[in-house]
Design brief:
The structure holds two protein chains of two kinds. By secondary structure, chain A is an all-alpha fold. In chain A, 67% of the residues lie in helices and 1% in strands. Chain A has a two-stranded antiparallel sheet. In chain A, helix 13 packs antiparallel against helix 15. In chain B, 79% of the residues lie in helices and 0% in strands. Chain B has a single domain, classed as Four Helix Bundle (Hemerythrin (Met), subunit A) (Up-down Bundle). Chain B has six helices and no strands. Chain B is elongated, with a radius of gyration of 20 Å. The chains are: A mainly alpha, B mainly alpha.
């Protein structure tokens, strides 16, 4: 805290903007450009992974379809999951939103290590290309979890899969490290921990998970890689290895990883809701601390993915209880957000609609999570479409609704143009209707016993599967509307100005798009950012500076 | 991390203008936190492999598996002393740098590099004993998998450390560090101690436990 309150020599240091296209837009060290690079690359991979999802749904349109061969089908669903997790969601919520917004929110000129940031980004496109290149040599076929021994016998693409995920893992670890130092060390004077915007709290918790858990995955993947290439026995039971070992190491990362997805989305929601309800956020500290609690608990629940894998019964109970405990901090957040809306003057912008949609669909996913966390229920539901329904409600209905809210909320800050609200409303309602029609029936199919990861199924499941498939095409149209809206905005979008939403966090106090150095002078922070109805808690904003200079009166800061 | 460690010189390389004390101190505190976090994440990499080793070891009744006697305790202990000694010499090196005894610094740094190399050669000798006398291979058994992977990962860290310390030595010749501004040397020393500490655990787990 002392560091943040002190006068900072680094903050006075404005680097000249590098010149030339390559230095400015390709190998840029500017956090905003790198963030945009992450967003664009992530959205490109999102389109590819989304098309893979439509291939899955087209295959499942009929109970015994021949659209894809069983091997192709295995490759397609494995790559859909892998790409959505590592090449889309994690880069967008941390590298994308985190990079663009977080340094602006804390009043910094850049992240702590700009060169490391650039290196993190430039591991990402090669990782994605390496991953999709595995289609050329035979894509991995054991799902995004790649359980041995199936992954040990999988096609050559599985080795590329390992390398791609190791690369993106290194990138995530470096980003996490970078963000932690940035948030701990580079906050503007007066921005104590309890005055940080909640998005920054979410990024701090996420960065810690990214930095600590991802290396465990790298270890698991390295072991899988050397086992596949050199035959070193870690996982192969024929040579004394243990397939369960992989599951422990994989889930030790991958359970915290779902909090890497969701915590930044929580952060986005915590920004959008108070802004459009024009009310101070309810329970600021509880929301902030619950992010940390979720991050901590997230490390202690990995084995709830393994209740059916053969594990000591006395171990199941603590993992079940710890899993259910996570519902408490998550519930604290949901109630705080609802209390924020209570009595507010709600402005139904598209960003707000997505944030409110998030509250509904994420809660749905959270509730089925508790069902799956209960050992007796899980034994029945494990490996069925119920699990697929659960994590799509959490990742699509949770993270992606948050991402869409964030895109609509911060688009004007990044481009200085507004998105079309009519198209936005259409996108929201199509997403809400088709999203739920796509993922809700999966619960029913799962409870009826339809296994996940199958290319054919018994004819009794056909009706619901067709409903899901047709709805998923509708969902694609909703996303198409988003890209149309972006193109529309570039051509016809109204100029947004610095603060189109009347929001109060620091990034809205500077011009859109923000200048290279972000702040001419770093402002001082007097209180938290959500006190709607009070004067702004900042001293020495650049806009003030310009005003006072034009009147040639006393220098800014002497209030 | 090399990217981060080099950035200070990049940022100010253009104008050949030295940063003020306050600016240097601030950047140094960022680097120190960043480097510590890097070491923590590296520690988790080792922890994950150690977990894998203990998990696999727990699946069989007798360790090492039949037919393998395991590494030699006495040789391992002597080799460990060499590595721990290099930690001490690096400590003396940094201490002398702080006091401006550049000549003595180079002597201790050289000794550190010598001991580190000695440790690596010792490891190589140990590997050859295991291979030729006990026919233990990397891919042969879960003993080979865990022992060679973990000690190999550590050995790789030692090797990287030797390269890192050599580069630091070269950088001091270039006049990059002064008696007051030597974050690179601090980071190198921290890294070298980290490699030592990891070996304490590996030595206990493979040679004594």
């Amino acid at each position: 805290m002392a560091v943040a309150a002190q006068h900072s020599a680094l903050a006075e240091h404005i680097h000249p903007e590098p010149q030339g296209f390559i230095r400015r837009y390709v190998f840029s060290i500017d956090h905003k450009i790198i963030g945009i690079q992450y967003m664009v690359t992530g959205l490109i991979f999102f389109v590819i992974a989304g098309m893979l999802a439509e291939l899955i749904r087209t295959q499942l349109m009929n109970s015994n379809a021949k659209f894809l061969t069983p091997d192709q089908y295995n490759g397609v669903y494995s790559m859909h999951g892998t790409a959505m997790v590592w090449m889309v969601t994690i880069p967008i919520v941390t590298g994308g939103f985190g990079n663009i917004i977080m340094p602006l929110m804390i009043g910094a000129r850049d992240v702590a290590f700009p060169w490391l940031n650039m290196a993190s980004f430039w591991l990402f496109p090669p990782a994605g290309i390496l991953l999709f290149a595995s289609f050329l040599v035979g894509a991995p076929e054991a799902g995004w979890t790649e359980y041995p021994p199936v992954s040990l016998q999988g096609p050559p693409g599985t080795t590329l899969w390992c390398l791609a995920i190791i690369l993106i893992g290194i990138s995530s670890t470096m980003t996490g490290l970078n963000f932690m130092v940035t948030i701990i060390k580079m906050r503007a004077p007066g921005m104590t921990y309890t005055r940080m915007p909640l998005f920054v709290w979410a990024q701090l918790a996420t960065a810690a998970i990214n930095m600590l858990a991802t290396v465990a995955l790298s270890a698991a993947l390295s072991a899988l890689f050397i086992e596949r290439v050199f035959g070193v026995p870690f996982y192969d039971p024929n040579k004394g290895g243990s397939p369960i070992l992989w599951q422990h190491m994989f889930w030790f990362y991958s359970h915290p990883a779902v909090y890497i997805f969701i915590l930044p989305a929580f952060g986005i929601i915590s920004e959008v809701l108070p802004t459009f309800a024009r009310k101070p956020i309810y329970g600021y500290k509880m929301i902030a601390f619950s992010s940390v609690a979720i991050a901590l608990l997230g490390f202690m629940v990995w084995a709830h993915h393994m209740f059916t894998s053969g594990m000591a019964p006395w171990l199941q109970l603590p993992f079940m209880i710890l899993t259910m405990l996570i519902a408490i901090p998550t519930g604290v957040k949901i109630w705080s957000w609802m209390a924020t809306l209570w009595g507010g003057v709600i402005h139904y912008s598209t960003a707000m609609l997505f944030a409110m949609g998030f509250l509904i669909t994420f809660t749905m996913g959270g509730l089925t999570g508790i069902m799956l966390g209960a050992v007796p229920a899980d034994l029945h539901e494990h490996g069925t479409y119920f699990v697929v329904a659960h994590f799509h409600y959490v990742v699509f209905g949770g993270t992606f609704m948050g991402v869409l809210a964030g895109i609509y909320y911060w688009w004007p800050k990044v481009t200085n143009r507004l998105l079309n609200e009519t198209i936005g409303h259409w996108q929201f309602w199509l997403t809400m209707i088709f999203g739920n029609l796509t993922f809700f029936p999966m619960h029913i199919l799962g409870l009826e016993g339809m296994p996940r990861r199958v290319a054919v199924y018994v004819p009794e499941y056909t009706d619901l599967n067709r409903l899901i498939s047709f709805s998923s095409y509708g969902l694609s149209i909703a996303f198409l509307l988003m890209f149309i809206n972006m193109a529309w905005s570039f051509k016809y979008g109204k100029k947004a100005g610095p603060n189109p939403w009347g929001a109060r966090t620091l990034e809205w106090m500077i011009s859109s798009p923000p200048p290279y150095y972000n702040f001419k002078r770093i402002p001082a922070i007097l209180s938290g950012p959500y006190d709607f109805g009070s004067p702004l808690p900042y001293i020495g904003l650049d806009s003030e500076l310009e005003r006072t200079q034009s009147h040639t009166t006393i220098p800014a800061g002497a209030h | 991390m090399a990217v981060a460690a080099g950035a200070l010189h990049h940022e100010h390389g253009g104008g050949h203008q030295e940063p003020s004390d306050a600016l240097y101190e601030e950047i140094r505190s960022h680097r120190l936190l960043g480097f510590t976090l890097f070491l923590i994440s590296d520690c988790i990499l080792f922890s994950a492999f150690i977990f894998a080793y203990l998990y696999l070891r727990n699946t069989i009744d007798h360790w090492p598996p039949p037919g393998i006697a395991g590494p030699d305790l006495l040789f391992g202990a002597l080799n460990s002393i060499v590595l721990f000694g290099s930690g001490a010499t690096m400590h003396f090196a940094l201490d002398n740098w702080k006091h401006g005894n550049t000549k003595v610094f180079y002597r201790w740094l050289g000794l550190t590099l010598f001991l580190g190399t000695w440790f690596l050669l010792g490891q190589g000798y140990e590997y050859s004993l295991l291979y030729y006398e006990q026919h233990a291979t990397w891919a042969g058994s879960i003993f080979g998998a865990s022992f060679f992977t973990l000690t190999g990962l550590h050995g790789f860290h030692v090797f990287v450390g030797l390269v890192y310390l050599s580069i630091l030595g070269w950088q001091t010749k270039q006049g990059i560090y002064t008696q007051k501004r030597f974050f690179g040397l601090t980071a190198g020393t921290l890294y070298w101690h980290f490699v030592d500490v990891i070996w304490v655990f590996l030595f206990f787990l493979f040679y004594i436990f």
